[in-house]
Amino acid sequence: MAKLNAAAVAKIEEICARYKDEKTPLMMILSDIQNEYGYIPLEVQEIVSKNTGISVAEIYGVVTFYSFFSLTPKGKYVIGCCLGTACYVKGAQQVIDKFSELIGIKPGETSEDGLFTLDALRCIGACGIAPAVSINGKVYPKVEVNQVSEIIESYRKEASA
Description:
This protein has helices at 6-18, 26-37, 42-52, 56-65, 85-89, 92-103, 148-160, and strands at 77-82, 109-110, 116-121, 133-135, 138-140.
């Protein structure tokens, strides 16, 4: 978001105004902002604070507590590797390690080209198809290390098309 332009500030203020009659509007406001921009940097948190009267410290606490909010931009493709117990015992650590190796980033990071973000997830509720990987909501079942390269390449091809 670099430096916010007037249109972005107006949009954030409009999102805040949308929930002015709610008793506890913060989660709804932050969710809408995250959906609109993909992340919630400090500058945006300050605008939300100014418009709601909620302290920046409280807003920051919520943004950093919940994993679906982000302080930094996410890649075009967000790869979530489940490391919950069922996935972990079926080799999920090796799968996420392979994604990390091939993309060149650690979990929680975004590739320099902005194409991929790699996230280690706790449990995505797909224990029966462990180890599971989700990419922008599409779930890949029973992922094996030797499939990772093909998965990455399919998204690189899609991005360049």
